[in-house]
Amino acid sequence: MLEIINLKASINKRDILNGLNLKINPGEVHAIMGPNGSGKSTLANILSGKNGYKITGDLKYKGENLKDIPVEQRAQKGIFLAFQYPIEIPGVNTNNFLKTSLNTIRKAKGEKEIDTLAFLKLVKEKAKELGIDEKILSRQLNVGFSGGEKKKNEILQMKILDPNLVILDETDSGLDIDALKTIADGVNSSRSKDKSFLVITHYQRLLDYIKPDFVHVLSSGKIVKSGSRELALELEKKGYKKIN
Amino acid sequence: MIENFKISLKEIDKINLINQEDKNYRIKNLEFFNKKGFPTKKEEDWKFSDLREIFSKNFKKIDINDTYPEENKFRLIKEFDHNYILLINGRLIRSDFKFEDKNKIKITGYKEENFLREKSNNPLICLNNALSNEGYNLVVEKDYKFEKVLVIYNLFNEDLSEKILNNKNKIIVKKNSELHTIEYTINRSKNKFFNNTYENIILYENAKFKNICIQAGRSEGYFHKFLNGSIKSDSKYSSFIFSSGLKFNKQDIKIDLEGKNSDCEIKSALFLNKEDHQEIKTVVNHLVPNCKSFQKIKSVLDSNAKGVYQGKIFVKDIAQKTNAYQLSKALLISENSEFDSKPELEIYADDVKCSHGSTSGNVDENSIHYLMTRGLTKKEATQLLINGFLKEIISDIKSETIKKFVENKLEFQVYGY
Amino acid sequence: MNNQDINTNQEYKYGFTTDIENIRAPKGLNENTIKFISKMKKEPQWMLDWRLKAYNRLKNLTEPNWQKPKYPKIDYQNLYYYSAPKSAAEKPKSLDEVDPKLIETYKKLGIPLNEQKRLSGVAVDAVFDSVSVATTYKEELTKKGIIFCSISEAIQKHPDLVKKYLGSVIPLTDHYFATLNSAVFTDGSFVYIPPKVRCPMELSTYFRINASETGQFERTLIIADKGSYVSYLEGCTAPMRDENQLHAANVELVALDDAEIKYSTVQNWYPGDKDGVGGIYNFVTKRGACRGKNSKISWTQVETGSAITWKYPSCILQGDNSVGEFYSIAITNNHQKADTGTKMIHLGKNTKSKIISKGISAGQADNTYRGLVDIGKKALNSRNYTQCDSLLMGNKCGAHTVPYIKNKNSSSTVEHEATTSKINEEQLYYCNQRGLNQEEAVSLIVNGFCKEVLQQLPMEFAVEAQKLVGISLEGSVG
């Protein structure tokens, strides 16, 4: 699904990633853990195609080199980033936004556009599945949403857009336990053999609910240790410093 | 008659001039003024302050001032240590920099060569260009920070009666230097006069200049001041204006932010009463990237007073990352008072944060009610609220003794009526 | 934002011309032209006298020059002041008699003249160059006592109403363009809503300039009698021509006690090409009088067209408790210039006004909000709230905010806020990550920025306006 080879990235001449390698097969769930400033969010941004980074190395998605593919086309090809801080866009209705988004992705896939009725039915269904109050969808996009609502909204979008590669960028940060469960349920119910997940987190708490196949420790822009789920527990006990 | 007010070219002959070019420049300016006269509301910059109308109501005649008496009887401010210069009717009389390194400071009176010959469409600036021959020139050499504040005593003598005074001042703060001044106006004239000042401020790289302007106490003075500021990179200009009790006062401030990371702050608290008419006009030109500007103008208007704020933020196309904010708040506490404002933005760069806000209205009824339930009379409650409203500006003054001094002056205005 | 791959602008959709035979007055502005217009319209003497009075006044006026957009001198003697499709010289009695070419033109514009294929619930008056060619739904409206017809017809059939109200909001001797209009206006719409009647449908006028070298001077007069309500919409298009065409309309609204008028405009005159050649000069005077107590006038405008737009739909709040509103979107791209805003004149007690203005500039365009809020001495307990937001795309365009605020009343409150910014890069990134390309993302975010104004429009037109917002900005971002 995703292959990262010797990825180096810098912004404003500051090196952030220093030769990162990672391979994610279809159906796998990988967790990347690391302290603040280790380059976790940068990795998420680079995979989504955000401008402003100087990059060397290879990024392959479904065998295709991602270099030179702009953000929206990556999204259309099935890469979804659940943002750490979903931005507020005043005046834009969440439902309208989501429908526009879904239809551009469907169009790119060569599928027919979905009409409003079918869309609303789909949204209702997914919201119910996740136990999310669909009222938030008639509000302005992320405007005045609580932290939990913003994150839930990201997961709902993931459900509706049905991507192949999902990157969760610290989706657990600042959430209470109920919201965390909602989000984990959303992810777990989406797991399938043709979907992969990259879960970026600071704490192992999330991994009690989303059980990863692999855990990687990111430090100073490199993966310094990889292992199974137990690695996360070890990290929790010993802290990041000891792992190096 | 003020309506067809003209000044004889002979006035220029009274000024000591060696240079014919200077003389021609003055003549041209006077001719322009004579053609235009005092500005009226038909001119955009004077839309809310019709000076010709104000003058024709209040002056029967008006002449050029030519008396500058020596004066020793004035008392220095006791509340805090300070350096000072004394101006009488605009003329530099003496100075005292006892707290400072005298090698780092140059102070002289008016000098023709200190000012560029600029063309202006503003009749009052032309009038000043034509006739000014008094003022001061202050230079702070580089790498010098003032130890104590410099008070500029701006004293107007009893003998002034229906006179125009034209002064020109210049302040230069060189690289890495810091100056803090208090411009303290003392009006002794019981008669009407008009002071028309042009001031030029230049801050070089990494310089700081903070000025507190206090014009308080009832007076028969009519004031107009044009301030032309040029701010180079990494330097900061801040100005606090506290003025009240003047018949007419217009402070017309133009600041050019010419160097990167420069910063300009203008704050004002005005309490106007009786027939006072006061205008603050600011134009801040963001000419290069990464500069900041901030204006906060608070006015309280009582009796028949009229307050005006015209503020413009201009951002040139290359001035990206500009951060500019402007706020004007006015309280109208009498039914005959008026507040007019024109907060203007003219912006050509897209990566900027520029905004302004302007409100005018009465003192909050709920707050008054709350205070009255605590036993205050309506007048006391109102005074308390307007004092608080204006004090917010003072709270930004860092020095405690100076803050206290300004506060007393302001409280006298608010409670003294 | 970079401008690397600027797409070519979507062609102006309404840029076609219609090949129709015209009757024209000879070029030039003089008494004979005015007499010709009046004669062609079979006007009574009092109307001609009124026009000539305006013309005499005009001779002593000069064009205003304080507005920001400057334009080349207009040669008023080299313009046609009257141009009418020949076939409409005798006003058709039913749609069957309307020239099929005209029907075809309006079909291309998407304006439903044909009542069989009508857009539900909208009555349309169509003005082609100088004359009103068709008014739909007349019968249904007549049943309720509503008068909706061309102003020419109203002058003949309802002279008392016209005499009473025409020029009562925009006096005969106003500024240059308004007075010019009073002298040479050709057609426009007239609406009268009788007391206590709620107009059951949107009333709409579509204006079309077709003929070249022709000025268009319409005159619209809307009167809402006591306790009535009407919602009115105008739309405008013009063919693409290299020359600049002058459009100087006057719109007067009168709301009596407890009446409400909602006036919406979607202005999409030809803006000129991307180098700034051609386009309409849209110098329009719009003014409403809230004459009665508890009356309300609400202006909503979406201004995307014209080379130069220069208009200030205003409210004179005379009646106690009256309300004035102004909602505006002005989008300028390429070389377009807009100087627009409003005047809220508070005269009555407890009057309220609200101004929401959204200006968007792209390309080399200039966009100015200019407005006046004036609270008079007798306007006790009045309130104004103003919000002006500007969005800039690139650093070759400009945004200006020039509000004049006068408060002469201590019991009244005025609040004004303004901001200028660009589209937030993070918002664009978020939209991109959800699969939207740059233009879709910009259109979405800008529509969000304009939402408060768009939601004021009647449903049928909100959708059209939203699309227009997107189209107007195409090619403005890389």
The secondary structure category of chain B is alpha/beta
What fraction of the residues of chain B are assigned to beta strands by DSSP? 35-45%
User: Could you tell me the mean pLDDT of chain C?
Assistant: 83
Q: Per DSSP, what share of the residues of chain C sits in E-state strands of 2 or more residues?
A: 25-35%
| Weakly predicted, low-confidence segments of chain C | 1-10, 115-120
**Structural class of the secondary elements of chain C?**
alpha/beta
H/I helix tally of chain B: 7
How many β-strand stretches of chain B?
Answer: 20
Characteristic key phrases:
A: alpha/beta, 6-stranded mixed beta sheet, C: 478 residues
Would you write up a description of this structure?
The complex is a heterotrimer of chains A (244), B (417) and C (478). Helix content of chain A is 36%, strand content 26%. The two termini of chain A are 28 Å apart. Chain A is an alpha/beta fold. The radius of gyration of chain A is 18 Å and the shape is globular. Chain A has a single domain (2-243), classed as P-loop containing nucleotide triphosphate hydrolases (Rossmann fold, 3-Layer(aba) Sandwich), CATH 3.40.50.300. The model of chain A has no long low-confidence stretch (mean pLDDT 89). The longest helix of chain A is centred in the middle third of the chain and has 15 residues, at 94-108. Chain A has a 6-stranded mixed β-sheet with strand order 6-7-8-3-9-10, sandwiched between helices. Chain A has a 4-stranded antiparallel β-sheet with strand order 2-1-4-5, with helices on one face. Chain B is α/β, with parallel strands linked by helices. Chain B is built from 7 helices and 20 strands. In chain B, strands 1, 4, 5, 7, 9, 11, 13, 15, 17 and 19 form a 10-stranded mixed β-sheet that branches. In chain B, β2 (83-88) and β3 (91-96) form a beta hairpin. In chain B, α6 (378-394) packs antiparallel against α7 (400-415). Chain C is α/β, with parallel strands linked by helices and 478 residues long. Chain C has one domain. Helix content of chain C is 21%, strand content 34%. Chain C has helices at 31-40, 45-58, 100-108, 138-143, 151-157, 159-165, 176-184, 425-433, 438-449, 451-454, 459-472, and strands at residues 22-24, 83-85, 122-128, 131-135, 147-150, 189-193, 202-208, 219-224, 229-237, 244-247, 250-255, 260-267, 279-290, 296-303, 308-311, 314-317, 323-332, 337-340, 343-346, 352-361, 366-375, 383-392, 398-407, 413-422. In chain C, the strands form 3 sheets. A 10-stranded mixed β-sheet of chain C has the order 4-3-7-9-12-14-17-20-22-24. In chain C, strands 13-15-18-21-19-16 form a 6-stranded parallel β-barrel. Chain C has a two-stranded antiparallel ribbon with strand order 1-2. β19 of chain B pairs antiparallel with β23 (398-407) of chain C, so a sheet runs across the interface.
